[in-house]
Amino acid sequence: MMIALAALAFQACKSKTSSSTTDSTSVTKDSTVKDTTMKTGSATTIDKGDSTFVVTAASDGMAEVNAGKLAQQKASGTRVKNFATMMVTDHSKAGSELAALAKTKNIALPSTPSAEQQKMADDMNKMSGKDFDKDYVAGMVEGHEKAVKLFTDASNNCKDPDIKAFAIKTLPTLKMHLDSINAIKASMK
């Protein structure tokens, strides 16, 4: 009976989604089901806004890495290539940290960028030379403006202290990226 109860509680914990509560299901002697709060601390309730931030940041980060790898191969300007290398390095590191954090919070992350992000990458792949550089730089400016806003909002509004700390820690790097890509854009005029 105890093994069955433990298996049921374990399965209930494993099947919870990021918007679930900390309640698990237990069976009493008369086979009725009642909700009990888990006291172990292993299950947590993650605010929907917090989990949306984590998923969005992960997807956007993957897109940045993929675009950076493409730019390392196709960009014609040295500054653009150097920026692309920085994107791959910094966003890969942040992505690994975010994946570890998401795992501890039971937040499922996408394994690939969104369809829209993939289409943009496919379109960029058809370009070369200065056209590629111009499109990549414009995309990086727009993407980092959105990222700074996303991470600023998360820094101010996330409920989960670990997710909030990740946003706060990562935000200065994103601001630096935005400053760098704006400088590259200004030099291309």
Architecture overview:
The structure is a single chain. This protein is mostly helical. The chain has 6 helices and 2 strands, in the order αββααααα. It has helices at 2-14, 48-74, 78-104, 115-125, 129-157, 161-187, and strands at residues 23-27, 33-37. A two-stranded antiparallel ribbon has the order 1-2. Strand 1 (23-27) and strand 2 form a beta hairpin. Helix 2 (48-74) runs antiparallel to helix 3. Residues 1-42 have low confidence and may be disordered.
Secondary-structure topology with pairs:
Elements: H1 2-14, E1 23-27, E2 33-37, H2 48-74, H3 78-104, H4 115-125, H5 129-157, H6 161-187
Antiparallel strand pairs: 1-2
Helix pairs in contact: 2-3, 2-4, 2-5, 3-6, 5-6
List keywords for this structure.
189 residues; mainly alpha; two-stranded antiparallel sheet; 6 helices; 71% helix; 5% strand; disordered N terminus
